[in-house]
Amino acid sequence: MNCCCMPLLEVSRAPALLGSARLPLALVNPSRRRAIIIPITVTRQVRPLSFTSSTPPPPVRRRTTMASGGTASSAAAAGSGAGAGADMPAMMYGTAWKKDQTADLVYEAIRTGFRGIDTAAMKRHYDEALTGDGIRRAITDGLVTRADLYIQTKFTPGDDAYADREQYPTIASQVRASVASSLRNLSTAGDGDSSGDYLDCLVMHSPYARDEDTLAAWAALAELVPAGGVRALGISNVTLPVLEVLASNGNPPSAVQNRFRRAERAWDADVRRWCAARGVAYQGFWTLTGNRAEWQTAPFVRHVADAAAVPLATAWYALLQAVGIVVLNGTTNPDHMRDDLAGLRAVAEWRAEPAGADVWARSFAVFKQLIGME
């Protein structure tokens, strides 16, 4: 399966500097060379899902934290989606492949400033229960409240945990069992009672091979919005034809999570355009590891990095977030976490200056052309 839980490799991020320019010490750890990110907020309108009336309810306001830049049209567009949702950070912490370190890393991510946590019920690549342990510890220690966090997990079609067809004879029964387990694993009550808990977003990890099975699972997921503890629905590893099938049945997702790279359907441009037109959040993974040739060598990335005195990867992240891409970050290094979340403040301050605004505008135009937006 073309899965978003494939291992994310640490990437060396060499700083790009001109002459004697230096990176601010507060923003860079000299023992590593890595990019840094800071989110700011824009608004989106998302229409909650309804199966009981042919007349859709009025749109509700939903905020999605994004780094500003350009028009951020994909983040600000109005559209409909499955569920009202909560604040979605521009960078989310990804928990795949963390194994027995999951709880400690989730806790550290929250401690250093991450407010979005992405996990999954699939035990082969995630430990959802340990993710919940890390979240509960952070809440118990007073680092955050539940309302501060955007918690997102996934239902995985064909998950081995629900392979027993006598116990789970239908797709709907598999969905219900998976989500009930996720709510228990991610409960913030601390006493095992998940009755008052909720998921900010529940993502279908991938479509099924057959559209009818995908629609059956999607309908079962949608029944949980919002009464079943789910505020919004998303789908991952998805192509445009599948999205059109979901939309044609009146239930488009609130979020799409796909691999973002040139080799993957040309920057996933058709899916991103579809999302932008409907106000659907686009979450990208492999944004660094899948694009080394671009962010490490492209002149327009270097222009931003040199002028703002930040690493190349920081400039790349700034450009990604400026077009509304929510980045999944799976680092296991606490220093990297701190640096990554410290980041775009320097770029934002630089862009506010006349000289910075000019360099940014020219580089941003080239970037948008590269990824199929111009």
UniProtKB/TrEMBL annotation:
Residues 65-79 have a biased composition (Low complexity). InterPro entries: AKR, NAD(P)_OxRdtase_dom_sf, NADP_OxRdtase_dom. GO terms for molecular function: oxidoreductase activity. Residues 49-83 are annotated as: Disordered. It comes from the Eukaryota. Keywords: Oxidoreductase. Residues 94-288 form the NADP-dependent oxidoreductase domain. PANTHER family: 2,5-DIKETO-D-GLUCONIC ACID REDUCTASE, ALDO_KETO REDUCTASE FAMILY PROTEIN. This is NADP-dependent oxidoreductase domain-containing protein. It comes from Lasiosphaeria ovina.
